[in-house]
């Protein structure tokens, strides 16, 4: 059975992500920073909307670069279930 494209791209199971995905995230973060600074400067509505535009550009980059394909699905983990005993519970054999 052939592997899917994301599985082939992440054969080493790294959670680091691709450089293109980091570029998109960085552009979005830059837009939020510009918008946040604009709000503290008075607010400066023109600069705020410039930040909003940068966020939209970052979102488009994220869609084009398919950042969600960077998600690696690990095998389900088996968690051992331990019995829990209440400290108020009387143990068998104790009077």
Description:
The structure is a single chain. The protein has 95 residues and is mostly helical. The protein has a domain at 17-69. It is 51% helix and 0% strand. It is elongated, with a radius of gyration of 25 Å.
Provide the fold topology.
Blueprint: H1 5-9, H2 19-40, H3 45-65
Helix pairs in contact: 2-3
Strand-pairing-aware structural class: mainly alpha
Largest sheet: number of strands, sense, barrel closure? none
| Poorly predicted tracts of residues | 6-10
Mean pLDDT: 80
Helix-residue proportion = 40-55%
Number of helices: 3
Categorize the overall geometry.
elongated
Radius of gyration: 25 Å
* Gap between N and C termini: 62 Å
Order of helices and strands: HHH
Short summary:
The protein has about 100 residues and is mainly alpha-helical.
List keywords for this structure.
95 residues; mainly alpha; 3 helices; 51% helix
């Amino acid at each position: 059975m052939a592997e899917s494209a994301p599985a082939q791209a992440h054969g080493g199971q790294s959670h680091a992500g691709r450089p293109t995905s980091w570029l998109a995230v960085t552009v979005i973060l830059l837009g939020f920073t510009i918008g946040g600074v604009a709000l503290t400067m008075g607010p400066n509505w023109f600069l705020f909307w410039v930040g909003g535009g940068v966020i939209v550009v970052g979102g488009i980059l994220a869609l084009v670069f398919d950042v969600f394909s960077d998600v690696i699905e690990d095998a389900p983990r088996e968690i051992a279930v331990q019995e829990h005993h209440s400290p108020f519970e009387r143990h068998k054999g104790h009077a």
